[in-house]
Amino acid sequence: SLLSTHTHQAMQMQHAPEEAAATAPAVDLANATAAATEQKPDDAGPQVAELMEIDRLTEAGIPAADITKLKTAGIFTVPGVNMVCKKDLCEIKGLSDAKVDKIIDAARKLSAAGFVNGLGFMAQRKKVVRITSGCAALDQLLGGGFESMSITEAFGEFRTGKTQIAHTLCVTCQLPFQMGGGNGKAIYVDTEATFRPERIRSIAERYGIDGDAALENILIARAHT
């Protein structure tokens, strides 16, 4: 994963997804958007941490040619460099031990990798966004919704709502912050060929979002495992 912080949460889903969705109150996207425009910039919502692209290493004096070699090896972000051990970096063709040391040092300085005190960690936590599941009861169990900058695992028996939750989050993550969304987009890695655009349209209608607009903000990739 390219995220700098990972929190693993596991939960057993026991209710059908349709029943869960029915418990959530309807929302008015138009009114919420209008309210957002009246807010001051500081009140617009939490700031989502950005993943620094690996090209930022040029700011620390790393040659573009070496950055290209990192990209060829599948490393595209500065935090991604920190997640690869030195031994593996040295195995990249064209990168000597000395070059790897400079790359690691530059990546750590840019991403402020290392220890941080409690106050610093609290400041980082302010960037966390909680995305509504569409079910008030489930959001309460999760402490306000699915947490960003983390990994949440939903597991359960067949037809307990795991795929429905994934589809719902693809839509709710696009909602404004004040509506329990993340004001963002979604990436859906489909390992079981279960992504259904028509389900996205149905969920989007519930929130007053145009179905085509919602689908345009979702990237889907089929993964064969």
Summarize the structure in words.
The chain is an alpha/beta fold. The chain has eleven helices and six strands. Helix 9 (162-172) packs across helix 10 (197-206). It is elongated. The two termini are 17 Å apart. Mean pLDDT is 81; it is low at 1-26 and 32-44.
Strand order of the largest sheet: 1-4
Largest sheet: 2 strands, parallel
State the order of secondary-structure elements, H for helix, E for strand.
Answer: EHHHHHHHEHEEHEHHE
The CATH architecture assignment of the largest domain turns out to be: 3-Layer(aba) Sandwich
Over the alpha carbons, how many angstroms does the gyration radius reach?
20 Å
Distance from N terminus to C terminus (CA atoms, Å) equals 17 Å
Q: Kindly report the CATH topology of the largest domain.
A: Rossmann fold
> If helices are DSSP runs of H or I spanning 4 or more residues, what is the number of helices?
11
CATH class wording of the largest domain: Alpha Beta
- How much of the sequence is in beta strands? 5-15%
CATH superfamily of the largest domain: P-loop containing nucleotide triphosphate hydrolases
Number of domains: 2
Unreliable residue stretches:
1-26, 32-44
The backbone outline, from C-alpha atoms, is elongated
Give the beta-strand count: 6
Assign a percent range to the helix content. 40-55%
Rounded mean pLDDT is 81
**Class from secondary-structure proportions:** alpha/beta
Domain RecA family profile: 127-225
Biased composition (Polar residues): 1-12
InterPro entries: DNA_repair_Rad51/TF_NusA_a-hlx (IPR010995), P-loop_NTPase (IPR027417), Rad51_C (IPR013632), RecA_ATP-bd (IPR020588)
Pfam family, one: HHH_5
